[in-house]
Amino acid sequence: MRQLIIIAAAAENNALGINNDLPWHLPDDFKRFKTLTSGHKIIMGRKTLESFPKALPNREHIVVTRDQNYTPKFPCTIVHSLEDAVALIGSEECAFIIGGGQIYKQAMDLATDIELTRIHDSFEADTFFPEINPNDWEVITEEYHPKDDRHQHDFTYLTYRRK
Length: 163
Description:
The chain is of the alpha/beta class.
């Protein structure tokens, strides 16, 4: 069965990022992102792609942009709508939607699952994660991580499945 998974880290106020960067540094969350997305297609908006210094290894990058003449800084598949991106995912495949804010918003109606790292703090941001409607989604796993010497904030991994 095809899985379309939104994966994100968002603060209590749904902050995702500011100036095309993350307002926090959570090494364990980066590790989890890498573990979950490796070997899969990742779908993102142009600004998210441009925030990477280089392609993420062992993942096929699919970039959504309205710019018909867009030239990416490294090889990836360019599409012009989220629907076109989803059409590239096979019926037995699992793909991850990795941002940014506009792409997440569009994906809320298409996704089968959400892997959310909820950071237990609020941040100034210019990009926000959409509200998760409890009528549409249920939490199926929850794993709390207190702050420590490598993580300045408490956070919880939440896995949601569409009801």
